[in-house]
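Input record (Table S2, row 333):
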Amino acid sequence: MTQQALPLTDRLRGRDWLMTQDWADDEIDLVLATADQLKTQFKTGVQTLHLPHKTIFLIFFDNSTRTRNSFEAGITQLGGHGHFIDSKTSQIAHGESPKDMGIILSGYGHGIAIRHDTVPGEGQTYMREVAKWADVPVINMQCDVDHPCQTLADLMTIREEFGQDLRGLKIAVSWAYAPSYVKPMSVPQGLIMLMSRYGMDVTLGHPAEYALMDEPMRLARENTERSGGRFTVVDTMEEAFDGADIVYPKSWGPEALYGDPEAAMKVASQYRHWICDEAMMARAKQRAIYMHCLPADRGSEVTDAVIDGPQSRVYPEAENRMHTAKALMALTM
Ligand code: CP
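Output record (phosphoric acid mono(formamide)ester complex):
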């Protein structure tokens, strides 16, 4: 007979997940403990039908591999259904308002998740407006400010590697060169906001043009003060990597140039040497791990030797996206 999972707590039922900063430490711990449990159950064939016949609407303003598929597979494994909505082929493209989306989709289902990440100043505001009118939980699948589903999976991966007490560990969040497209700012911003809560030494490295938004920087400083960690900004990848336990080099765009990709790429092309190769990895601790939210620009952000090498954790990190997405849906919907 197939084993069934025990019911979950109702403590977080109905809550929106818009920024990690909106949730208390013990609430994040509860989500991660649930993700651990769901991961074990997934691997041992225990059924986890916590959301039978429930629907989550997945609204995408941008492309996705991990986020879309982790939510769709995840909701299926929870007994529900993920309904994909492409902003370009829905009435959003004709100007349908976030208020209408929030009210109407609330009438059809049990949760709304949104990715709206490529225009600084828009995504988080759009989600908050949907959430204001929706009477089901709204989940941020990546906006201009934060990518809380990614950084939650990153925190899970880091704890799997280093344990629960992360105090004193150095994480290097560094800019890296990528020619493929102007990547959002929300992953580095999400990382500095979340990791600074755990007493870590968070070192942010980037060329002058790649300053992060003011509010995530302010929150990272405030969190650092509260947690007793360190938050430092440097202007070389080398300095960021020196003595690091975790390195997370990835590309993002200059805040003012998201509307002009050609100009953004011209700025980036000056910094082709910002690549994570084996020489760069050698500056970090011997046991350091390499992380990336993916997709990575191989040969530009990182060499194959590093991303496919023994220090890379990109695949467990990507897998944890599904376990954490399931935990968020199962606890809030
Ligand atoms: N890391 C991440 O969010 O991947 P996708 O863009 O493929 O969803």
